[in-house]
Structure prediction request, 627 residues.
Amino acid sequence: MADKINVNIGKNKGKTPPKKKAGNFVRLSLFWAIIIILVITIGSSLTPVDTLKEIPISDVIHRANSGEIAKIEISGNSVKITPKGEEKPTEKSLKEGGSSIFEQGLDKDAETEVIIKEESDVGGTILNAAMLIVPTLIIIGFFLFMMRQAQGQNNQTMNFGKSKARLYGIDKKKVSFLDIAGNENAKQDLMEIVDFLKNPKKYEALGAKIPSGVLLAGNPGTGKTLMARAVASEAGVPFFSISGSEFAEMFVGVGASRVRDLFSRAKKNAPSIIFIDEIDAVAHKRDTRGGNGREDEQTLNQILVEMDGFDNETGVIVMAATNRVDMLDKALLRPGRFDRHINVTLPERKDRLDILKVHFKNKPVDSDLDLESLAAKTAGTSGADLANIANEAAILTARLNKKTISNAELVEAFEKVAIGPESKSKIMTEKERELTAYHEAGHAIVGHVLPDSDPVHKVTIIPRGRTGGVTWFLPHEDRSYKSVYEFKDAMARAMGGRIAEKLIYGEDGVTTGAGADLQNVSEMARSMITEEGMGSNLRNQVFPIEKDGSLLSGLVKPYSDETALKIDEEVQQLMKEAGRRAEIVLKSNKEYLEKLAKELLAKETLEEKEVKKVLTGTSLPKAVKLH
Ligand code: ADP
Ligand code: ZN
Prediction:
């Protein structure tokens, strides 16, 4: 049962998913494939091959058109050419599709007879045929098998070595800077890049070096990809995009060759833009590399080599996106590489409103659609989240067979995106409903009473997603800083659910419904001590833990075990204090706990105003006052 402090949509998106790795099996198979290929090569070089005269196809066509050739017999990949006046044909082997070259190349009135035989009558011993066919079948079988393996791993066996960068045509996906709301500074910097692409001469004349790499840093969903596409679009140049995780695939060396291919395609189409999303997937720090180290290092080195080879004439600008600048290999950030950084931030209230306007621009809406209050209650969300809400609202409206989007759908869409859809079908026993009502009432009352808590926005005991009920607190405005008072009130409020259960059902009557709340409190407490320097003994010191990027070696803590003990003590103390404060508030306002729970059981959902009405008259006990 959640005590929602802030709406935190898409919390987990910041983490790069662990890279999928091809198992040992694939590497073993590669070993066998190499052996098989060797066998074929040896086999075919042992096979006696008649030495044939090399004649270019164009030559044959030319001669046929000038009437020198009587007959061309094509069967499979072999061609017999019988010149006029000779009986003995010359044999030649053809590349795939060769037969059509003949048909297309010959004049209609050429006197040459072209015979294409269905069946191969290539001579040779059975051994010869077997030498070719058996290994070929094995290889085909192997590849089919590998492809099936690869499909399960979201990899593509075919085409390895070729980059998978998609080319967005110049006129196809037009993205303008007008489609990007907020982030004015970032847009300003990007306009400059557009100018580099459009007027390179202007910069050259002044002896300026055009940047080769631009790093876009910011949370997921903040529009980094959108911005890169807009730059390409506004400059009218092709856009090649690939994700860092796509480089890192099966075999050593493949990533690097993909990079080579990608850059050569971009250079051929210059001026152009290469966009590498999630560059941290291949460019994490060298000393903190996980299992795929060697492969990633080769890929990264290739990117650096390519970029170092750029000059003003190259006309290619590489844009890369990451949400973990701190994780990047410093070599990447050196001058001449990704030396321009653009920070892309989560939108503030005004920007959120603008983003919503962009996404509702082409949707039919009621005239009183209240985007402003949606913008107000979506602090901490990204542009992608807002786009998602707009889309959900449209879907909901269509499902209701309505023609225009109204506030009801807007609110519903927001709540769905924020905490998952209502699951009215989830069956709760009467006892569970009652427990949920007390639990949520506990959160709401503590939050309502404590002065440094955000105001209650809504309380509901309708199950949503995986939670039994939800109490929402929404800050009325964006706040960048948080005081110790605010932390402490937020922790007490989060303990409110468990404490309410305890007061009603007894010490051991408490349930697992508070598990997530406790987790939450513990995280807040730990971050106060280790990140914010807000401990009582450990004040104004921080104890960062470095995540080293690999799953196996885990965390590196740059402090002593003694300090670790002190940290644990402080965390426990903060949690205890939070529980104590919640208990004092709820005990001294017990009648309101009963009242609010009853009201919730009757109505299921209470809005801000209704909650306030029920809770008029609650008191703030002296013992919980912090200031
Ligand atoms: P990122 O690359 O930073 O993860 P994207 O560019 O993929 O984010 O953003 C995903 C979608 O979110 C965009 O296609 C767009 O619809 C929406 N979006 C994100 N930021 C903005 C913004 N500032 N203005 C308008 N739409 C945005
Ligand atoms: Zn709870």
